Amino acid sequence: MLNSKEKNKKKECAGKTVASEKITPRSFDYSKWYLDVIAAAELADNSPVRGCMVIRPNGYAIWENIQKILDAMFKETGVVNAYFPLLIPKSFLEAEAEHVEGFAKECALVTHHRLAFNEDGKLVPSGELEEPLIIRPTSETIMYRMYAKWIKSYRDLPLLINQWCNVMRWEMRTRLFLRTSEFLWQEGHTAHATKAEAEEETIQILKIYQKFVEEYLAIPVIPGYKTESEKFAGADYTTTIEAMMQDGKALQSGTSHHLGQNFAKAFSVKFLDENGQEQYVWQTSWGLSTRIIGALIMAHSDDTGLVLPPKIAPTQVVIVSIMNGKDNEAVAAKSNELAKALRLAGLTVKVDNRDGRPGLKYFEWERRGVPVRLEVGPKDIANHSVVAVRRDTGVKAVISEDSLAAGVKEILDAIQVNLFDKALAFRKENTREVNSYEEFKTTLESKSGFLLAHWCGNAECEAKIKEDTKATSRCIPFDQPEENGKCVYCGKASKKRIIFAKAY
Amino acid sequence: MLNSKEKNKKKECAGKTVASEKITPRSFDYSKWYLDVIAAAELADNSPVRGCMVIRPNGYAIWENIQKILDAMFKETGVVNAYFPLLIPKSFLEAEAEHVEGFAKECALVTHHRLAFNEDGKLVPSGELEEPLIIRPTSETIMYRMYAKWIKSYRDLPLLINQWCNVMRWEMRTRLFLRTSEFLWQEGHTAHATKAEAEEETIQILKIYQKFVEEYLAIPVIPGYKTESEKFAGADYTTTIEAMMQDGKALQSGTSHHLGQNFAKAFSVKFLDENGQEQYVWQTSWGLSTRIIGALIMAHSDDTGLVLPPKIAPTQVVIVSIMNGKDNEAVAAKSNELAKALRLAGLTVKVDNRDGRPGLKYFEWERRGVPVRLEVGPKDIANHSVVAVRRDTGVKAVISEDSLAAGVKEILDAIQVNLFDKALAFRKENTREVNSYEEFKTTLESKSGFLLAHWCGNAECEAKIKEDTKATSRCIPFDQPEENGKCVYCGKASKKRIIFAKAY
């Protein structure tokens, strides 16, 4: 069934045996480095379906951890989960003008519901649908049609629903995790009685995203507003958290939208208020996707491979048995015993009792990003201690068996802090205030990173800057010094600096 | 945006205020009763998309519990999760002959990837794809193409991957949970070096399904083989667990397939064995879907509404405050205090501190299937006790505050056992051995339930029985007494009795 080209591909890829493919250094080819890290850690793979990726078990385990943590944070605020249809009638998408504009150009369309044999004996689409259905690029339209049915009175509000699902936006140029036609995400959709409540919800969720990305993924982010031209199609305004990758590019890491009453009016989502008056609800929507795994990979990894923060790593500790032949059984038993103790202390642990040179085994676990490696050999057993090696710094420490769990936890905490601090220092180093368009352009040419520039608020200036430089407005940071300035492009008065950068 | 018909619908449906719609009794109209129970408990709703349902938060919370429990059971055996593309190229589905035969007639086809304006200014499908893509009805073909790439050596085996996802099989006649075009499920797909290992895996998973459905959902099931004509399209054989609903119909509750080397050969999934010889892998696939929620609803609920076993109920206990006006604050505080204590003991608890007649509040929580209701009023506070009411029997008990958690847990355990025992007794009462075709037909006409009949193994007899009676073969139970008999249809020798029944 496979042609010869595919057979060759098969030979190239890595199996469970220790892999030896090299990872391209970041300095040599950053894009290739990114894909090499993913391949070496077996996080994802291209699929035979254009634009769609396969999330392999090592990558999916990260997504499962993201889901578990974020889901609990949402539920803490009263959000509940539900599931809405994958397919959306074309007319629903059309109901909100800006929305259809934003999504019509890149959507997968279901037009038939059967395969049947044609005259030549070939299976071809049959059973044409009266109205084409769109695979959801996002679910506002299908969800709010239901909200219109469910919401009757102010007592039904707020309605706080989230769904974890797959969505599809047709992409021509794709990149594992960062840009794929199908991706996984969560999308929250809330309805409120007042504008103030909806605005509060918008910000509450953005703060959850920020807390999650900073505290768990160890990626510092800048929260702020998107400009009008970068906002979500159909929203009154969009809030975002923006992160800097190791190549200085920006990556939008989560967005929370205040929808105003735009969809409420399009879908007739109304309620009777306490005075018996009919009102439109105020809405928010917010999402975070598997794209964040791309950010996670790029934020911390190095030329050896994946680096994961301990709070999100599916495996926090790997115990590598050093096999010398004659003591193999005793060493394996000791490794298993230590693993058991660490698991009891709440850590996730793998044991590598395979034969083979220790160096090769270390190499494999380093590429997979496991934060701490413990080395256990006959000498360590005799000394009642183990050697612990940090993935982030390579620093070694000897830990006594008596205090193993506490010692390992201390190292894990230190790694989590170090990764965040390093990423924050990098972002600070690579964020520059620029005060003229000349300075803007020369800085962008010579250095990667974020530019903080005054902007008058005019979409035309923003568009011209993008056209000239390929840098886009990333966000208007919430945190702004009181400062009067001049638009870097047109020179008109400006009160705010916004972040411009090249972006993923 | 809504027409008048839709506006009327809106008025009919229930909100958060206490609902008063009646539930149709089972004896009057079983199908209507089923839909009324779902509506009253707000588990699901029809969507505007043909054949697709909305799983509302109360229903989705059940699915989340199912996922949590089953996922842990799978992982215990070494299974890991991953995610594969939603869309499958037509040619992949065609690669296995029986498989395409089984799924081509009811699949959603993506043929275009853009909406564009036509000459009349209407948005129409554009960007036709070279090859149509099928929304996965199941993922064997797309997954095994990847397995062919990943598996190289016996060291890469077994490969044990599961995915939680949505799938789509176009349905004309749909019914909430039981039969919908889109549904949620898990599908496990494993590859092994030997046939024996694959067969062991097939049975191991079926046993997990049985344990889960019996111990958590309190539904007794009969494990067995599907006949050739009822097996999965592409499998060597299919194992199944079959449950009986309250109307005597059968519901297939989970299936585990031994795929042999059929897909391995179609997709060239090969490995080098320990002797360096190239071999095809042996495979299994297995799935359990949101359909099981339909079974859960039908197995235990009554004319008052939903009844849920405590081990799967999203809310195990509801504390209803009895408000008399002057003591409201004290009562609410006591209810909150008791809830806190019960949560500390590991139970999921809701508190109903709303104003309103207690009877109406009881009514609402009964309809939602919460296993235990605790009533707290001024008198109970004075007595340092609460009244506990069982949802399954309505039996009341007074529990002292001192031993509240222990007392409630005892009741929950008793409910779990009672629901299973009741369902088992019902199944036994409604399972009948029949020894002639005449007896088969007259029994089926006068009574609902399972028929245990000898069958020679010939697909023609099976087809004739189905044609005559609408009863299908449900399974060949693993557990068979040694018994020689005669095929109930043709009279030829038979060594096994199989279960025939009308089915969902």
Question: What does the model show?
Answer:
Two copies of one chain form a homodimer. The first copy, chain A, is α+β, with helices and mostly antiparallel strands. Chain A has helices at residues 4-12, 30-40, 57-76, 90-94, 97-103, 140-150, 195-215, 262-267, 291-300, 328-344, 358-367, 378-383, 404-429, 437-446, 459-469; strands spanning 44-46, 53-55, 80-81, 87-89, 109-117, 123-135, 159-168, 182-192, 221-225, 237-244, 250-260, 270-272, 278-280, 282-289, 317-321, 349-352, 372-376, 385-390, 396-400, 431-434, 450-454, 472-477, 485-486, 493-494, 497-501. The longest helix of chain A is centred in the C-terminal third of the chain and has 26 residues, at 404-429. Chains A and B meet through strand 2, helix 3, strand 3, strand 4 and helix 4 of A and helix 1, strand 2, helix 3, strand 3 and strand 4 of B. Strand 5 (109-117) of chain A pairs antiparallel with strand 5 of chain B, so a sheet runs across the interface.
